[in-house]
Structure formats: C-alpha cells, structure tokens
Amino acid sequence: MEMTDIPETADATPISALSFEAAMSELESIVRHLESGDVSLEKSVSLYERGHALRLHCEARLAAAQARIEQVSLGGDGQAAGTAPFGEG
C-alpha cells in the first residue's frame, strides 16, 4: 500500500474541519495502511495518533447527531402527540 492511499487531508486538514464522512474515510484509509505493515515506526505512530483523533471526532459528531434526533410520541388515538429527545420515553 502506498502513501497515496491516505487521503490528502491527512496531516493537512484540521480534524475539526472534516465532515463525519471525510473523517471516517480517512480513518478507514489509515487503518488499511497500518494493517499493511509497510510503514516505518515513526510514521505508524503519527498515523495512529491521527487515527485516534479522527475516531474521537467521529464519535463526537455521532453523539451530536443523536442528540438532535427527536422521537415522535403517539397519543392513544395513534396520532402524533408531541416529540421528545431521542432515548426518552
């Protein structure tokens, strides 16, 4: 696997500026690259650190999305009676 398999955003774009999809794609590329074993120790550590930060970023984006989802509650007549944050009720 060549370094060109890692997205150009790696080490260039701040992680906080990445969309969930871009961060996930870069994380998947980093994992494949590390699994290949064709990386020096120093580069492996650097990639691991960025991968860890990408994972935390993705988890935070998912948590934020989950917090925004509302669950529709139904009344006795089967009609929408209101909404509640995801996970309540």
> How many structural domains can be distinguished in the coordinates?
1
Average pLDDT: 82
- Order of helices and strands, N to C? HHEE
Q: What proportion of the residues is helical, as a percent range?
A: 40-55%
Quickly give the structural class. Answer: alpha+beta
Flag low-confidence runs.
Answer: none
Q: Which descriptor suits the 3D outline?
A: rod-shaped
Number of helices: 2
Radius of gyration computed on alpha carbons = 19 Å
Number of strands: 2
Strand order of the largest sheet: 1-2
What is the terminal-to-terminal distance?
49 Å
**Binned strand content:** 5-15%
Q: What kind of sheet is the major sheet? A: 2 strands, antiparallel
Task: Compile the SSE list and pairings.
Blueprint (H helix, E strand, L loop, with lengths): L19 H17 L4 H28 L1 E5 L5 E6 L4
Antiparallel strand pairs: 1-2
